[in-house]
Amino acid sequence: MPLQASDLGWDIPIRYRRGGRSRLAGIELYYDFPWSNHFPDGRAQFRNGRCLALLVHEGCPDGLTPALLVTDRDTVEETIIQTTTHFVLVVNLPRYLSQATANAAESYYADRMGIRALAARPEVIDAVMTQMSIEDIETWAAEDVSRIDQLRQIVGVREGATPATLEEAVAALSALGQLDRKAVGVLAGLFGPDSDRAARLELVRHITADPTGRYVTGEVLVQRTSDRVTDARNAMSDYQQLLDDPGSNETTMQHFIEENLWLLGLDYAQMRARHPLPRGTMDFILQRFDGFHDLLELKSPQDPIIRAPGDSNGDIAPSPSSYSLSPDLAQGLAQAHVYRDILSRGDSLNEDFYGLPHARDARLIIVIGKAATMPDHCRRVLRELNKSLHHVEIVPYDILARRANAILDNVDLYLVAAAEALTDGPDVPHVAE
């Protein structure tokens, strides 16, 4: 269970979310300010955060859970809070972002707290280097004039040649124009399969910052449709293995859906996982392409949905008075309605506290259990229940898989039809312009 402010002796409410897997190593992340105040994009990460998360993992005693508590209050100093379950490093975010150098976590906390647990660890140095941008290199070099000479040695300036200034080197990199296929391939290698996911996202954001970039990106995505379908098929195979595993639970499925938003359909552009509330945490807030949001609540794939005592084969339906919602589904329904009530109280609260600019009567989706394990008469009751609920849908995990596979089948049919049209279609006369 997430920590509460009282567990840490914290004097104001705190919120919880899971840190980004790449930039924050998936660490538990607590904070005492609206996240959107400092991070409008809503992502659970910050600059040089990975080395900081690794520092906490390294120093965490056995048996405890490592965590970060991030604050933006000037009066709060960095410290370590240790509870019976957690090892929590308090981070003053503005100071950390402004003062942490390239080997961010170690240098910053070595100066302020005497921590040197990660000195000379190659994997940490590598993690920091993969996150550095041109702007980071400029800042690093500006701190010490001698570092400019180090940069010149790296790029191999000829003896006797007039060395380029740092500004000229950065300008030369920024001014790269027409590149041949080989050069483009070398640059692309910087963002290959082993690169940081967040770094790739940042690159795509820059590429799509103008109309031309968005157009050519869309063109490439169309060309990659077949590859993307193959990737999705592989993901569905992994998903089916999770469904077949009796050890799979809510947390297992949560992690998978975080990595595969498309599994929920084609209506959603973005998700926010484990979104905190004053007294609870929503599993997912789903942002639709129209800018509005839906709520997704997960239960375990092992949970029952409709309870009805009867014969083991489900051939004989019991009396109507014997049917009931399972406790897990009943709790999920009540929980989701409470969340919707909170998010429906006013746009001002939603935008300031939750970072949701467009409040509305959100649709609720509860994913629970498996239809395949239900007797037919229980499946019919679930079907009737979904008909009667307003803006609420109860979806078994295997039905979610069936829908996703149907989408992929339709795409495959389109690709086959498109290929046949190109090879066997009638000749179209050329019309001169």
Please give a quick description of this structure:
Helix content is 45%, strand content 14%. With 433 residues, it is α/β, with parallel strands linked by helices.
Tell me what you see in this structure.
The chain has 433 residues and is an alpha/beta fold. The longest helix has 28 residues, at 397-424. The protein folds into two domains: 1-131, no CATH class; 231-407, Trna Endonuclease, Chain: A, domain 1 (3-Layer(aba) Sandwich), CATH 3.40.1350. It is globular. It has helices at residues 5-8, 49-59, 93-99, 104-113, 122-129, 134-142, 146-155, 166-174, 181-189, 197-207, 211-223, 225-244, 250-259, 327-343, 347-354, 376-388, 397-424, and strands at residues 15-18, 28-31, 65-71, 80-82, 86-92, 268-277, 280-288, 293-298, 306-307, 324-325, 364-367, 392-395.
Here the CATH topology of the largest domain equals: Trna Endonuclease, Chain: A, domain 1
Helical amount: 40-55%
Instruction: Give the termini distance in whole angstroms.
Output: 68 Å
| Overall number of strands | 12
SSE topology string = HEEHEEEHHHHHHHHHHHEEEEEHHEHEH
Oligomer: single chain
* Top-tier CATH class of the largest domain: Alpha Beta
Mean pLDDT: 75
How much strand content do the residues show?
5-15%
Uncertain ranges: 114-125, 427-433
**Count of the separate structural domains:** 2
Structural class: alpha/beta
Largest beta-sheet details: 5 strands, mixed
Q: How is the largest sheet built, in terms of strand order?
A: 1-2-3-5-4
Shape: globular
**CA gyration radius, whole angstroms:** 26 Å
Tally of individual helices? 17
Secondary-structure arrangement, i.e. CATH architecture of the largest domain: 3-Layer(aba) Sandwich
